[in-house]
Amino acid sequence: MLAARREVTHVETPGRVWPGPPLARAAGNLAVTGGAGFPRGGVAMVVGADGGIGSALTRAIQASGGFDRVLGLSRRSQPSLDLEDERSIEAAARLAASLGDIRLCIVATGVLHSEAMRPEKALREIDPAALAKSFAVNATGPALVMKHVLPMLPREGRSVFAVLSAKVGSIGDNRLGGWYAYRASKAALNQFVRTAAIELARRKPEALCVAIHPGTVDTGLSSPFARSGLAIAGPDTAATAILACLEGLSPGESGGFFDRSGERLPW
Ligand SMILES: NC(=O)c1ccc[n+]([C@@H]2O[C@H](COP(=O)([O-])OP(=O)(O)OC[C@H]3O[C@@H](n4cnc5c(N)ncnc54)[C@H](OP(=O)(O)O)[C@@H]3O)[C@@H](O)[C@H]2O)c1
């Protein structure tokens, strides 16, 4: 059941008006509407709120009505958050905490390709600048979000910090090779999640810090590499599943790496 519309903060980005149309399908499946997963109220924040999956997550969280404030952050939001600018991350974390208890934070940013870089097919294509960019956006930036947001999570009650990782970051599951920068930076991200979760559990035993593989999702990040025959989900479908997955995880599962259906993935 949908609760009354809650306030959405700082989610306007040029060219896009938030909120979008209500997501009846998403909201109907979400226990963030007040089920056991989260205490009602508090703040939800999405980092990368203008990305393909991040925007769908922001809409679905907002449509759920389960939080008092929904903070959508990106390089174009006001205030802006740039993963390569620690001060902007720190300011965003402080802003979120000033609005209420942070009950949910999802980092939905990432880079696989750009005009200046494309995934490597072979060792000879490894480029230090592309490696540095991949690590800055996929690993260091999310680690800095952990650094500033995890201490702000409420001391009591459930809260969830999740980063979107990628199954190709799994070392145990790597059978195809290639994509060195993306794979290695996501593997580093997974290690940050695991390590931060151990530290978090000492102070906030009800809080979770997890890595989620969203599956192959139709976004700008994946579109150049979509192969026919591959099951590709729409961003709204993926967002619904990710939120249901997060709700279903218990504190004992903090520090894990899961796909969007909640299946544990190998490191
Ligand atoms: N799509 C898939 O099939 C798939 C599969 C596995 C994992 N994932 C993971 O899912 C996550 C979301 O991907 P997506 O498919 O939604 O990609 P996307 O549509 O390209 O979104 C990526 C987001 O990252 C943001 N970003 C990049 N650099 C940033 C920086 N320095 N500071 C702040 N934000 C920055 C982008 O913001 P700007 O608009 O400012 O560039 C954009 O909002 C990523 O971690 C990706 O690795 C996706």
UniProtKB/TrEMBL annotation:
InterPro entries: Fungal_SecMetab_SDRs (IPR051468), NAD(P)-bd_dom_sf (IPR036291), SDR_fam (IPR002347). GO terms for cellular component: cytoplasm. One of its GO terms (molecular function) is oxidoreductase activity. Pfam families: adh_short. This is SDR family NAD(P)-dependent oxidoreductase. It comes from Aquibium carbonis.
